[in-house]
Amino acid sequence: MHELSVAQGILGVIEAERRKRRFDRVVGVHLRVGALSCIDPEALGFAFEAAAEGTCADGAELRTETEERVLTCRACGERVAADHPTPACPACGSADLSLAGGMDMEIVSLEVESDDEDPGE
Length: 121
Description:
- This protein has a domain of 78 residues: hypothetical protein PF0899 fold, CATH 3.30.2320.
- A hairpin with a 5-residue loop joins β3 and β4.
- It is an alpha+beta fold.
């Protein structure tokens, strides 16, 4: 299950951001997962919950949205949903299409909290 290593990578990014931005906890993580990324959002949720235990993201809500497959016409630059009913560009008719989206995963946003109390003040 590669979702566990993906979850650990997400936590690594969260920890780096926590050190840089100095927040205490993460309460929400919003991800965009490509339809072709080979990531199962449900399995990733279970893996994230397990990996986040005892970290600043313990108990954080993981929200995922799916990025659909997108094709780009090499002839005219038109972007087309990959599930378009014909194998040709609707704008120019070219069949020279390339895959342009739906393969990645990205952290869109983090919802964080910080303790407002500073013992030094």
